[in-house]
Design a protein that fits this description.
The model has no long low-confidence stretch (mean pLDDT 95). This protein has one domain: Orthogonal Bundle (Arc Repressor Mutant, subunit A), CATH 1.10.10. The strands form two sheets. Strands 1-5-2 form a three-stranded antiparallel beta sheet. It has a two-stranded antiparallel ribbon with strand order 3-4. A hairpin with a 2-residue loop joins strand 3 and strand 4. The chain is built from three helices and five strands, in the order αβααββββ. By secondary structure, the chain is of the alpha+beta class. The longest helix is centred in the middle third of the chain and has 13 residues.
Protein backbone atom coordinates (compact mmCIF):
# COMPACT_ATOMS: atom_id res chain seq x y z
CA UNK A 1 0.00 0.00 0.00
CA UNK A 2 1.36 3.43 -0.94
CA UNK A 3 2.04 5.93 1.81
CA UNK A 4 0.12 9.21 1.66
CA UNK A 5 3.36 11.20 1.07
CA UNK A 6 4.07 9.00 -1.96
CA UNK A 7 0.73 10.21 -3.32
CA UNK A 8 1.80 13.81 -2.67
CA UNK A 9 5.05 13.25 -4.58
CA UNK A 10 3.17 11.91 -7.61
CA UNK A 11 0.66 14.78 -7.52
CA UNK A 12 3.44 17.39 -7.42
CA UNK A 13 5.41 15.73 -10.22
CA UNK A 14 2.26 15.57 -12.38
CA UNK A 15 0.90 19.05 -11.63
CA UNK A 16 4.17 20.99 -11.86
CA UNK A 17 5.99 19.02 -14.59
CA UNK A 18 8.43 21.22 -16.49
CA UNK A 19 8.07 24.17 -14.09
CA UNK A 20 10.53 25.98 -11.83
CA UNK A 21 9.06 27.65 -8.77
CA UNK A 22 9.84 28.41 -5.13
CA UNK A 23 9.05 26.02 -2.30
CA UNK A 24 6.47 28.56 -1.07
CA UNK A 25 4.77 28.68 -4.50
CA UNK A 26 4.59 24.88 -4.64
CA UNK A 27 2.89 24.79 -1.26
CA UNK A 28 0.55 27.73 -1.88
CA UNK A 29 -0.60 26.49 -5.29
CA UNK A 30 -1.18 22.90 -4.23
CA UNK A 31 -2.26 22.61 -0.57
CA UNK A 32 -5.76 24.10 -0.85
CA UNK A 33 -8.31 21.38 -0.21
CA UNK A 34 -5.59 18.80 0.53
CA UNK A 35 -4.76 17.11 3.82
CA UNK A 36 -1.07 18.03 3.75
CA UNK A 37 0.80 20.62 5.80
CA UNK A 38 3.81 22.69 4.75
CA UNK A 39 6.16 20.29 6.56
CA UNK A 40 4.86 17.42 4.37
CA UNK A 41 5.71 19.37 1.22
CA UNK A 42 9.23 20.19 2.41
CA UNK A 43 9.78 16.58 3.46
CA UNK A 44 8.70 15.16 0.10
CA UNK A 45 10.65 17.77 -1.88
CA UNK A 46 13.83 16.87 0.04
CA UNK A 47 13.14 13.18 -0.63
CA UNK A 48 12.63 13.78 -4.36
CA UNK A 49 15.85 15.82 -4.43
CA UNK A 50 17.84 13.05 -2.73
CA UNK A 51 16.47 10.55 -5.28
CA UNK A 52 17.59 12.86 -8.11
CA UNK A 53 14.01 13.30 -9.35
CA UNK A 54 13.86 17.09 -8.97
CA UNK A 55 16.51 19.82 -8.90
CA UNK A 56 16.66 22.27 -6.02
CA UNK A 57 18.87 25.38 -6.14
CA UNK A 58 20.89 25.73 -4.03
CA UNK A 59 21.51 21.97 -3.65
CA UNK A 60 21.33 20.21 -0.26
CA UNK A 61 25.12 20.37 0.13
CA UNK A 62 24.96 24.19 0.13
CA UNK A 63 21.90 24.63 2.38
CA UNK A 64 21.86 25.09 6.15
CA UNK A 65 21.58 22.14 8.47
CA UNK A 66 19.68 22.25 11.73
CA UNK A 67 20.19 19.33 14.12
CA UNK A 68 21.84 17.42 11.27
CA UNK A 69 18.89 17.83 8.90
CA UNK A 70 19.15 19.85 5.70
CA UNK A 71 16.73 22.77 5.67
CA UNK A 72 14.50 23.92 2.82
CA UNK A 73 13.71 27.64 2.87
CA UNK A 74 10.55 29.01 1.23
CA UNK A 75 12.53 31.03 -1.35
CA UNK A 76 14.54 28.05 -2.65
CA UNK A 77 13.87 27.21 -6.32
CA UNK A 78 12.52 23.78 -7.27
CA UNK A 79 12.61 22.46 -10.85
CA UNK A 80 10.29 19.60 -11.73
CA UNK A 81 11.18 17.36 -14.70
CA UNK A 82 9.09 17.28 -17.88
CA UNK A 83 7.31 13.95 -17.86
Amino acid sequence: MAQPLDDLAKMLLDQFAGRTMTVKEVYEQHHVGKHYIEKNYKEILKQLESEGTIIIVPPASQRRKIRGEVTLANHVKVTFPIQ
